[in-house]
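Question (not urgent): is this output format expected?
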Amino acid sequence: VAVVDYPSIQFRFLCGPLHQQHKLSVPPIPRNKLQFQFSHSGGAGGQNVNKVNSQAELRFNVNEADWMGEELKQRFLEVHASKLTKSGELVITSQKERTQHSNIKDCEQRLKQYL
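Got this back:
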């Protein structure tokens, strides 16, 4: 929480991820509960561009995340409703790196930022 002081007025701003704003604890994400799909990346990639499925797509269904607390699930659904598919999944894709492993790590990092 950041506090900005103006003459006779005080504003409070909430900053940071959901768990910091509302003091919710985020458990570690079990990797076996995440669904990944892989495809060819677009753009430059040298000789392997059309041979290697390096683009990673993470599909995270919050309603099936039994490792999350109910309060954290509700806050996630409220805040990120516009980013979810009709089936309630958050889809995160990464093709920043040239290797599948690096793109998986990038997807996981971005999911942690959402939580």
